[in-house]
Amino acid sequence: MGEDPATLDEVRTWPALVSLAQAARALGIGTTTAYDWHRRGEFPVPVLKVGGRQKVRTADLVRYLEAGGGESS
Length: 73
Description:
The chain has 73 residues and is an alpha+beta fold. The chain has one domain (8-66): Arc Repressor Mutant, subunit A (Orthogonal Bundle). Helices cover 41% and strands 15% of the residues. It contains four helices and three strands; from the N terminus they run αβααββα. The protein has helices at 8-11, 20-27, 31-39, 58-66; strands at residues 17-19, 48-50, 53-57. It has a three-stranded antiparallel β-sheet with strand order 1-3-2. A hairpin with a 2-residue loop joins β2 (48-50) and β3 (53-57). The longest helix is centred in the middle third of the chain and has 9 residues, at 31-39. It starts with 7 loop residues before the first helix and ends in a 7-residue tail after the last helix. The relative contact order is 0.27. The model has no long low-confidence stretch (mean pLDDT 92).
């Protein structure tokens, strides 16, 4: 079994950019699902390519979660 979803308070303490896998945890979804959504253009927040890796702005995650998206509380 994977990690518990991150709380909104926890997400607010994260660095400015996080991996797609860490963003998935904030959204309460699995890493495979996150990569599938990204590949299909359905990830709910913008995904950036930084140094060949997919990154997500923590600020975008916080805004999404504050608006009621995902499972974090």
